[in-house]
């Protein structure tokens, strides 16, 4: 896989700094693959009951968080593809709460969600392998802000790290 350098300041809105500050280096593929194993190990070590209990009233269960992570990665991947292909139309934001509510992740076996997460990650790496390097810095508009495919792709492992730390700290 080609080296996927990190985005520069200005390639994304400040909102995404939270996620992008959590990842470093240029070993994107290794980070993506290592995170699959981290997630599998965590969920297997905790068991099914753990995956179905929120840490507080009104919070998502680990299964719902995992489903949210998958949905978010699909959206970021789609946005990256659109902008790398030269899409000029602005793409809308999304409200994560109705996505989680309507997905009914609590009804999905945890192994299906873990398999889906891995499949999404493998599709992500496959897509990146065929993107021309120069298209990673095209600028598109999502959620009312300019952003590059490179930034969107790096948000994915940062978003994972954000939620993984919450798993460790709160659940």
UniProtKB/TrEMBL annotation:
Limits of the DinB-like domain: 40-165
Name of the protein: DinB-like domain-containing protein
Source species: Algoriphagus iocasae
């Amino acid at each position: 896989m080609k080296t996927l350098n990190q985005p520069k300041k200005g390639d994304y809105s400040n909102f995404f700094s939270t996620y992008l500050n959590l990842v470093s280096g240029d070993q994107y593929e290794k980070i993506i693959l290592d995170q699959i194993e981290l997630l599998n190990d965590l969920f297997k070590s905790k068991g099914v009951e753990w995956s179905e209990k929120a840490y507080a009233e009104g919070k998502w269960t680990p299964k719902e968080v995992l489903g949210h992570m998958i949905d978010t990665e699909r959206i970021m991947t789609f946005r990256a593809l659109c902008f790398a292909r030269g899409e000029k139309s602005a793409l809308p934001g999304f409200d994560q709460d109705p996505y989680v509510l309507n997905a009914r992740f609590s009804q999905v076996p945890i192994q299906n969600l873990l398999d889906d997460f891995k499949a999404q990650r493998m599709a992500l790496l496959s897509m990146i392998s065929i993107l021309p390097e120069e298209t990673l810095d095209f600028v598109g508009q999502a959620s009312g802000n300019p952003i590059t495919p490179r930034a969107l792709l790096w948000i994915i492992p940062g978003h994972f790290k954000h939620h993984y730390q919450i798993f460790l700290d709160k659940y």
